[in-house]
Amino acid sequence: ENEVVASMSANVFKVQVAVGDKVIAGQSLIVLEAMKMEIPIESPRDAEVAEILTQKGATVSTGDVLVRLK
Questions:
Q1: Are 27 and 46 in contact (CB under 8 A)?
Q2: I need a surface site. Which of 3, 21, 28, 55 has the fewest CB within 10 A?
Q3: pLDDT tens string 22-39
Q4: How far apart are CA 49 and CA 66, in angstroms?
Q5: What mean pLDDT comes out for the span 7-16?
Q6: What is the pTM of this model?
Q7: Per-domain residue ranges for the chain?
Q8: Which residues neighbour 44 within 8 Å (Cβ) at sequence distance 6 or greater?
Q9: DSSP secondary structure code for residue 44 in this structure
Q10: How far apart are CA 8 and CA 23, in angstroms?
Q11: What is the pLDDT of residue 23?
Q12: Within 10 A of 63 (CB to CB), how many other CB atoms are there?
């Protein structure tokens, strides 16, 4: 699984990683905000961040690709 997607429609509250970062399974990559709740989007596996496809303040929809891992 190389693509990490939005679990719901929301606003991007925080981007917590940068391209090239090594991440571990369960680490929060992006924090979404919807209905005044913060929803962490976590890495499904140990990996390296290859690409970030969103930014703070962006609006995303369910299924949008947020981060690509390698």
A1: no
A2: 55
A3: 999 999 999 999 999 999
A4: 11
A5: 97
A6: 0.94
A7: 3-69
A8: 1, 4, 25, 69
A9: S
A10: 22
A11: 98
A12: 11
For tokens 């979404």, the residue is 32
* Token code pair at residue 7: 């679990």
Q: Which two tokens stand for residue 69?
A: 């891992």
In three-state secondary structure terms, 1 is coil
The dihedrals phi and psi of 59, each to the nearest 5 degrees, come to -105, 130
CA distance 68 to 1: 9
Q: Which CATH architecture has domain 3-69?
A: Beta Barrel (2.40)
How is residue 30 written in tokens?
């992006």
Question: H or E element: which one contains 34?
Answer: strand 28-34
Q: Scan for tokens 């969103």, then name that residue.
A: 54
| Rg, Å, the chain Cα set | 11
Q: Starting at the edge strand that comes first in sequence, how are the strands of the sheet with 10-15 ordered? A: 37-42, 28-34, 10-15, 59-60
Cα–Cα distance for residue pair 30/32, rounded to 1 Å: 6
